[in-house]
Amino acid sequence: MSATTPLDTSKLDPRKTDPDAVARQIIGKLTYQIGKRPDEARKYDWLRATTLVVRDHVMDRWFASGDRIAESGAKEVCYLSMEFLIGRLLRDAINNLGLSKPVTEALARYGVQLDMVELLEPDAALGNGGLGRLAACFMESMASTGVPGYGYGIRYVHGFFRQEISEGAQVELPESWLVHGNPWEFERRDATYEIGFGGHVTTVHESGKPARQVWRPAERVLAVAYDTPMVGWRGAQVNTLRLWSAQAVDPILLDAFNEGDHIGALVESNKAESITRVLYPADSHQAGQELRLRQEYFFSSASLQDIIKRHIARHGDLKTLHEKVAIQLNDTHPAVSVAELMRLLVDIHGIAWAEAWQITSKTFGYTNHTLLPEALEHWPIHLFERLLPRQMQIIYTINAEIIRHAAQEKGFNDAQIAAISLIDEGNGRRVRMGQLAFVGSHAVNGVSALHTELMKETVFHNLHELYPDRIQNKTNGVTPRRWLMECNPELTGLVTEAIGPAFLDDIEKISEIDPLADDAAFVEKFAAVKRKKKEALAALISERLAIQVDPNAIFDIQVKRIHEYKRQLLNIIEAVALYDQIRSHPEKNWAPRVKIFAGKAAPSYAQAREIINLANDVARLVNSDPVVRDLLKVVFIPNYNVSAAEIIMPAADLSEQISTAGLEASGTGNMKFALNGALTIGTLDGANVEMKDHIGDENIFIFGLTAPEVAQRRREAHSGRSIIEANPILREALHAISSGLFCPEAPSRYHGLISNLYNNDWWMICADFEAYWNKQRELDQLFAKPREWHSKAVHNTARMAWFSSDRSIREYAKDIWQAGPGAVA
Ligand SMILES: *Cc1c(COP(=O)(O)O)cnc(C)c1O
C-alpha cells in the first residue's frame, strides 16, 4: 500500500464484529486453515483459529496506521531494546479491539470458553524482568496514545528459562515458545540485512590522501525481520514490533555438501543461528560473553540499517534523519548503535564526520536503568576490536573529541577526564557502554526522580558537569489496559459501575473513585472484589503446590527477580521471626498471614539461588507445623512470568517493595500492585518515593534507611553484629536459619548466608530489620479493621493513574522525541 493510495477502511468488506459473524470467521479458520471440523477440534485448534481471526481484525487497522504515518510524514519513534517481555497477546488484542463479547459468545456456541483458550497461549518471555516488561508496556502505550512507534529487538528461539523447584532448589528448563508456531508474527524476507563481524579495516586513498575507511568483515550473517502487531486501545493505532532472527548467508555450504561433508556443511548455519538462540538470563548483571556482544551488535546494526532504508524510501535524504526518527536506547545493550550509526552515515553514505555526529546525537536518547556497578556494561578492548574493528576506531575518534572539548573548553583535570572517557584505562582497558550511550545522545534519562538524582551524583557525575542539560527524569509506568482492565475485570467493572466508563479512555479519571473511600457500601464491594481475586490465587496455589491457604489471611506478596538488593532475604527473616514469635506466644492476637514469593534467580547467581532454597525450606517446615496452623503460611510459586503476575497482582493485600534504598531504579511491580488496591510496605526507593507523594503518607507504609543513610553506612563499613546482638527477635530468627532448623538434611546450608549478615550486612538487612518488623506489626493492627484497610486500598487505586505508561510515553514524546500527537510534522 503506497502513501498515494491510502487504504480507505470504510470501502473494505467490513469485517463484522457481531457474534454470528465472529463465529463464522472462527469456523472458517478451523476449516480452511487448520483442516478440522468443530467437533474434531482440540483446544489448541480453537486457540489458533481464534488468534487468526483476531489477527485479521488487526490487519486492516495495521495497514491503516502505516498509511496514516506515511501520509502525514510524522516523526517515528524507534525503541531499541534487547528485551520485550510481552507475555500473552490474545487477551490484549481482544480487549483493545473491543472484541471480548463477540468472541466469548462465538466460542460459547461450540462449548468453548474464551478464558480457557487464552490460557493455552505460550507466554512470550523475551525478557528477564522489569526492563523488558517496561519495553512491552511502552509499546502498548505508544499505540494507545498515538505515537508512531517501532519496537526493535531480538527474536530469541528460547526466551527466559522455565523455573521448576525440586527439593527446594531452582531448576532451569528451556523455554520453547515457538514449537507450535507463532500465529502473531509475519516473516519479512524483504527486510533482511547483512551483519558483519571481525576482519579488518583498510584506508582508501584518493589523490594521495586518506579518503575513507573500508571495513571488510571476516564473517557475515543475515538478520531477518519478524513483525508482530502492537494493538493500541480501541484499535485506533497498531504499531510494529520488529524482531530479528539470525540466519547463515549461505545456509548450507554447497561445496562441503557436495563433497559429502554433510555435517560440516551445516556448521556455518548453526553458528550463525546461535546468535538469536537464547536470551541471557542475567538481570542487573553484565553477561560478559562474546556471544552477548554479538547479539547486541547484531540487533543494533540490523535495526539501524532498516531505519535508514525506510527513511531514505520515505524522505530521500539521510541528513533529515533526526527530524523524522527518534531512536531510544533502552539501557546500554544497544549502545554500540552510536558507533554503528556513525559508521553507516560516514563510511556507507558518505556524510562528513561532523555532520554525521550532529545527526547521530540528535537522533538518539538513552535510558539508564541501574546504578549497580556490576550491571554497568563494559567490554575488553581486545574483544571489541577483534569483533568490531571499525566501530572501535570510531569510538576512539569520538573519545578524542569529547576529551578535547572537556579539557580545552571546560578545563577538566586528569581525574575528571578519566571519569568521562569512553575507555576505562584502570581496568584492563575496557569500552564503557554507558559513557558511549551518554555522549551519543541528546537526552539521557533515569526512570524515577530519586534514581535520576543519584545518576547525576554517581555514575554520570562528571558527564553531567560537562553536559548539565542532558540528564532528565522519566518515571516509569505500567499500562492500565493489561494491569487493570485485563487482569482485573471485576475491579474494572466495579469502577465503571461507580463512575462510568470514561476512565477506560483516560485513566486519570479513575481518581473520581477517591471520595468513595469513605462510602461504606463501595468499600465493601471493593473488598469483595479483592476477596474474589484472593480466592482465585488460593485455588492456583492449591492446584499447583497442594498448599491450602486461607483467603481471610493477609496476602503478603513479594514477586520479582531474586536479587540481594531486592531483599527477599529480609522478608524471609521476618517470616522466620514471626514463626518463632507465634510459637512462643500463641495466645497473642496475631493477624493471619500468607507470605507469597515468586521470582527467578540468574542461574549463575549463587546467593540468589540460596535465597530461593531458603524460602522453600522455610515454607516446608512452617506449613506443616500444627502450632501456627492458619496464622502463617509461606508459599513459593514457581516460574514467575507475566501471566503469573496477572493473577498475582490483583490478589495482594500487601505489596513488598523493600529494596535497599538507592538501589532500585524505579520498580514497576510496585505500580501494578497499588493500582489493583494493594497497600505497599516499602523503602524510600525508586518510584516508591513518588508513589508516596501521590497516594499520601497515610496510605503507604514506609520504613527503613534512606538512600543517603545507606551510602553513609557503607562508607563506615557497617556490619550487622551489634544490631543482631541487641535485637533478640532478629537474633533468634538468624540462629534458627543458621542452625539448620529448616534444612536438617543439610544443616550447614545457610551458614555463609547468615555469617555475611554478621560480618558485613552490605544490603542493610540487619540495619532495617527492626523498622520493618515494627511496620509489619502496625499492618497487623490495621488488618484487624477491614474497613480502614480497604478504604486505604481504594485510595491506592484512585491515586495511581499518574503511574500509567501513557503518562510516561507522553513525557518522552514531548521532552525527548518531539513526536506523537501535538508534535509538528
Ligand atoms: C512487572 C514485572 C517485573 C518487574 O517487577 P519489579 O518488582 O519492578 O522488579 C518483573 N517480571 C514480571 C513478569 C513483571 O510482570
UniProtKB/TrEMBL annotation:
Source domain of life: Bacteria
Cofactor(s) needed for function: pyridoxal 5'-phosphate
GO molecular function, one term: glycogen phosphorylase activity
One Gene Ontology cellular component: cytoplasm
Transmembrane segments: none
Gene Ontology biological-process entries: glycogen catabolic process
Family annotation (PROSITE patterns): PHOSPHORYLASE
Catalytic activity: [(1->4)-alpha-D-glucosyl](n) + phosphate = [(1->4)-alpha-D-glucosyl](n-1) + alpha-D-glucose 1-phosphate
Record Pfam families: Phosphorylase
Modification type N6-(pyridoxal phosphate)lysine: residues: 672
Leading EC class: transferase
Keywords, sorted A to Z: Allosteric enzyme, Carbohydrate metabolism, Cytoplasm, Glycosyltransferase, Pyridoxal phosphate, Transferase
Subcellular location field: Cytoplasm
Keyword Transmembrane helix: no
EC number: 2.4.1.1
Role noted for this protein: Phosphorylase is an important allosteric enzyme in carbohydrate metabolism. Enzymes from different sources differ in their regulatory mechanisms and in their natural substrates. However, all known phosphorylases share catalytic and structural properties. Allosteric enzyme that catalyzes the rate-limiting step in glycogen catabolism, the phosphorolytic cleavage of glycogen to produce glucose-1-phosphate, and plays a central role in maintaining cellular and organismal glucose homeostasis.
UniProt similarity note: Belongs to the glycogen phosphorylase family.
Name under which the protein is recorded: Alpha-1,4 glucan phosphorylase
Species annotation: Fulvimarina manganoxydans
